[in-house]
Amino acid sequence: MNLINHSFEDYPMQTQHVHSGEGVAPTQRKGWKRPYPVKTPWWFKSLYPKRIWHLDRGEQKIYLSFDDGPHPVATPFVLDILKQYNARATFFCIGKNVEAYPAIYNRIISEGHAVGNHTQDHLNGWKTETSTYLDNVAKAGKLIQSALFRPPYGRLRSVQARQLSRYRIIMWDVLSGDFDPSVSPACCAENVLKHTNNGSIVVFHDSQKAWEKMKFALPLVIEHFSKAGYGFSVIPGG
């Protein structure tokens, strides 16, 4: 099962921000401790304004999202925690994992959560021919009925994005870092607790690689923000 890690983690370390023009996150900027920003900077969001980075800042709501599932252990754990707090979330699913675990996928939907397309095989848009990429998204779309799409690794060429105009392309403004082997479970929780605010779209992973950190951080995050009066909602369109 190909439950690969997410987005920025394989960028080279540098001391200034750059972008490729192809629509993914910046490399290391001076002052960042890791080769990806936990909080997506405003200037990068402004480069791709048609993509969804956060939702209404005027509402005390948080939009938790989970990438790369369904997973036979991680996803049921997430669903149990969400149910405990009457929270809702959005799951960006890999098509082949939906095929492998249809009962878990159906549980996601039956418990009131949203789903989104994360391609059939977790493809990197930068490294994949556009026709192949679009075919892979379409294949997943036969299994995942949703108007939401999140590109694996956050990597999507502009030409690919234009061809996916039927979807709302959902990015994020807070990255938990649960995919990162160098991040401790406590640091993963701190990443979210420190940087999340009204309307934040937060990324976790219901995957084998992220499991140990996610299972530690997620309950702390939900408990903290629930006590602070926040609600947890689905991203519209899923």
Fold blueprint:
Layout: H1 42-47, E1 61-67, H2 74-84, E2 90-93, H3 95-100, H4 102-110, E3 114-117, H5 130-141, E4 148-149, H6 158-163, E5 168-169, E6 174-175, H7 185-195, E7 201-205, H8 211-227, E8 231-232
Q: Percent range for helical residues?
A: 25-40%
Low-confidence stretches: 1-32
Number of domains: 1
> Secondary-structure element order, as H and E?
HEHEHHEHEHEEHEHE
Can you tell me the CATH topology? TIM Barrel
Number of helices: 8
CATH structural class: Alpha Beta
- Give the averaged pLDDT, no decimals: 88
What does this structure look like?
This protein has 238 residues and is of the alpha/beta class. The chain has one domain (7-232): TIM Barrel, CATH 3.20.20. 33% of the residues lie in helices and 12% in strands. The protein has eight helices and eight strands; from the N terminus they run αβαβααβαβαββαβαβ. It has helices spanning 42-47, 74-84, 95-100, 102-110, 130-141, 158-163, 185-195, 211-227; strands at 61-67, 90-93, 114-117, 148-149, 168-169, 174-175, 201-205, 231-232. Strands 1, 2, 3, 6, 7 and 8 form a six-stranded parallel beta sheet that branches. Strands 4-5 form a two-stranded parallel ribbon. β6, α7 and β7 (201-205) form a beta-alpha-beta unit. α2 runs parallel beside α8. The longest helix is centred in the last third of the chain and has 17 residues, at 211-227. The radius of gyration is 16 Å and the shape is globular.
